[in-house]
Structures are given as C-alpha cells and as structure tokens.
Amino acid sequence: MNVRxxxxxxxxxxxxxxxxxxxxxxxxxxxxxxDAFARWLCTAHGVASIxxxxxxxxxxxxxxxxxxxxxxxxxxxxxxxARLERI
Length: 87
Fold this sequence. Notes:
By secondary structure, this protein is of the alpha+beta class. Helix content is 36%, strand content 16%. The protein is built from three helices and four strands.
C-alpha cells in the first residue's frame, strides 16, 4: 500500500517496517488534529484511519499523522485509494 498511497494521493507515506499499518502524513490535506481528521476522513470519505494521539501521554500538537491498515483484500484497498485520490 505504501507506494500506491504515496503515488496516487496527497498523503505522504512514512517509512514503516514489519507492520500491517501504514503511517501517513496528512498535512497537505488538513490542519486538523488527528482524531478530528480520522472522524472527517471516515464520515466524509468512507475511509477508516487510526489517530496516533491516544498512544501518547502528551501528544505532539503539530503532528499530522494517522495510520491506515492494509491487512485488507485488494478490492477494499483499491476502493479506499480511489476515495483518497478525490481528496
């Protein structure tokens, strides 16, 4: 998913290894906090993401990163990327 997200969307894929999630920087899309962005992405575009802030005792205020799970069927990933391309 890393290459497909980075090429087709305004999300910037971050380097990860040994994971079923892809971290993406969404700062080119919105200036929302990660929880607000995750809600907006799901309700407005039908793509679920996971904010990172709940994993911090004191989350960085300027961080614009969410996680996308890619342990999905190819058809599901293709549909999500098509939705992300329209943002």
